[in-house]
Write a structure and sequence with these properties.
Blueprint (H helix, E strand, L loop, with lengths): L1 E3 L3 H24 L5 H28 L1 E4 L3 E6 L5 E6 L3 E7 L4 H4 L1 E8 L2 E9 H11 L7 H5 L9
Antiparallel strand pairs: 1-2, 2-3, 3-4, 5-6, 6-7
Length: about 160
């Protein structure tokens, strides 16, 4: 099973970027004397950073975020310039949890936290139905325990 994060998050990220740029512009308008060369330079740099963020960085980051669920492992990849790939073996999963953030009821999204021995993996911003289906599929029938994973081939111990 392969999937992506919710498309609604791209719009939310861009709204946050526009609000942050607006707050920076207001701060510049309040702090710097108007119509000087560094006032114009600062406003142009904020505008350039906003255009770069909204039209290049965030769409590329959204396109790079995806997950893959196979019989052996669960993998989550993301990044624009530096790609990060996190992989968790399914046999080492101890439990799976659905997380709901403050905007989740409005956007109808959930995040899935997969806890295993040695690593945690979070699949963020999934649509509700997709998160529920993944929860049912990934949740182990028999959770991973140390004895079952690492004692293959060993005989009984004398206590």
């Amino acid at each position: 099973m392969e999937g992506r994060i919710s498309k609604k998050m791209l719009a939310v990220w861009e709204c946050i970027a526009v609000l942050a740029a607006g707050a920076l512009v207001m701060l510049i308008l309040w702090l710097l004397p108007a119509r000087t060369w560094y006032w114009y330079l600062t406003l142009w740099l904020i505008g350039l950073a906003l255009v770069f963020c909204c039209f290049l960085w965030l769409p590329l980051y959204y396109e790079s975020c995806h997950y893959l669920v196979t019989e052996e492992y669960i993998e989550y990849s993301r990044g624009v310039f530096f790609f990060v790939r996190t992989r968790v073996l399914r046999r080492s999963i101890m439990y799976v949890t659905i997380l709901r953030g403050p905007l989740a009821p409005f956007l109808r999204i959930r995040s899935l936290m997969i806890c295993s021995m040695g690593a945690n993996l979070m699949l963020p911003f999934l649509p509700i139905r997709e998160a529920e289906a993944l929860l049912k599929e990934i949740t182990p029938k028999r959770p991973a325990i140390k004895g079952r994973l690492f004692s293959a081939g060993r005989g009984k111990r004398n206590g």
